[in-house]
Every structure is written in structure tokens, then in C-alpha cells.
Write a structure and sequence with these properties.
The chain has a single domain, classed as SH3 Domains (SH3 type barrels, Roll). The radius of gyration is 15 Å and the shape is elongated. The protein has a five-stranded antiparallel β-sheet, with no helix packed on it. The protein has no helices and five strands. Strand 3 and strand 4 form a beta hairpin. By secondary structure, it is mainly beta.
Length: 81
């Protein structure tokens, strides 16, 4: 599915984990942030993609932290006696 990520849904993806930028050309994002993939990595750097967030900031993001859908928190069931 990673190969289709960034192509399906007009390049729209969601962060499934948070990431704090380590370099000036990287983009910080939080869980469930909506991003648009503008350029996928080339042969030399396939693990990082160029993306834009909802504030129109652009930068590299690690593709392994992205998904097609927002992250759904686990549901807990409270049982009462």
C-alpha cells in the first residue's frame, strides 16, 4: 500500500504518528494532521516525500508515518456490574 500512498485521493494523506522536524527542510506534524504529497522520493531518497500541510507550509516528511485515513483511537468498554 505504501506504493499507492501519495497517489490515491489526489495525494491526500494523514499522519498516523507525530513527527518533530530535525532539519530546516522537514515538516513537523501531529497525529491526524492532513497533508498533501507534492513530490515523492526519487531513487536516491525513497523514504522521504515533499508535502504541504493545511497552513501551506512545505517540507520533507517520512513516508512511513503516513496513512490514507486518520488514526482512530482504540475504543474502551466500561463494564458495570
Amino acid at each position: 500500500i505504501q506504493e499507492k500512498l501519495g497517489i490515491l485521493h489526489n495525494g491526500e494523506v494523514y499522519a498516523v504518528f507525530s513527527y518533530e522536524a530535525q532539519n530546516s527542510d522537514e515538516l513537523t506534524f501531529n497525529v491526524n494532521d492532513h497533508l498533501v504529497i507534492l513530490r515523492k522520493g526519487d531513487d536516491a531518497e525513497s523514504e522521504w516525500w515533499w508535502a504541504k500541510n493545511e497552513q501551506n507550509e512545505e517540507g520533507y516528511v517520512p513516508r512511513n508515518l503516513l496513512g490514507l485515513y486518520p488514526r482512530v483511537p482504540p475504543q474502551t468498554t466500561n463494564y458495570t456490574d
